[in-house]
Amino acid sequence: MKTERRLKELGIELPPVSSPVANYVNAVRTGNLLFLSGKGPGYGANQARGKVGADMSWEEAKTHARSTGLNLIAVMKDELGDLDRVKRIVKVLGMVNCTPDFGDQPKVINGCSDLFVEVFGDRGRHARSAVGMAGLPNGIPVEIECIIEVSGAAPVRAARPAARKKAAAKKKVAKKKR
HEC string of 152-164? Predict the structure, then answer.
């Protein structure tokens, strides 16, 4: 089954891809592997914040992990053009911003893992680590990164919307300096 069709059947609409907040890119491809940078739930003013075990339950954090998974799938789509090029989700690293005594990190990260299996079927089953952190950027409750095996050659295409936006801003600044 086509992955895009599966998303529609599940009633899932992918969010827009957020731009990196520092000096990195959303993804790097080498050979048949695509490495995705860590993402969190939501972005900008809609970004979830809080510490699991203090500000929210593991159940609430699990919904944020699912939201993070949607952000990761959006990056896959942006990078590959077609989600059917995802041959397999290879590895997931889930980081949970939690209190020192919190021990249910695997339950939290299941929000993302369950989504990957729901969307990609057996291609979504992966190796995984789920760890606790004393803090995460901007106080987000979860950050997840992953490695994907992809099929086909890397697409040759125009710069992505975020890259075009940054390039246009640089040109505008350069013109003002003249």
Answer: CCCCCCCCCHHHH
pTM of the model as a whole: 0.86
The pLDDT of residue 42: 83
150 vs 2, 66, 87, 99, 136, CA distance in Å?
15, 22, 5, 36, 29
CA distance 140 to 132: 13
147 band by pLDDT with thresholds 50, 70 and 90: very high
Cα gap 61→33, rounded to integer Å: 29
Give which of 128, 88, 115, 85 is closest to 14, Cα–Cα. 115
Q: Is the distance from CB of 76 to CB of 150 less than 8 angstroms?
A: no
Torsion of CA 128, 130, 131, 136, to 10 degrees: 100
Question: Is residue 89 within 8 Å of residue 125, measured between CB atoms?
Answer: yes
Q: pLDDT tens, 6-34? A: 999 999 999 999 988 899 999 999 999 99
